[in-house]
Amino acid sequence: MKIRYISKNTIDLISEMESDLMNVERIKALARLPEPSRDRRYRDVLINIYKETGFMYALVVIEFKDGFKKIYVFTGKALLDSGLRDYIDASIYTEGSLVIKSPEGIEHIVYSPYVFESARELFKKIGELGDKYRLSDYEVYLERIMEYIDFDTII
Question: Coil, strand, or helix at residue 129?
Answer without folding.
Answer: helix
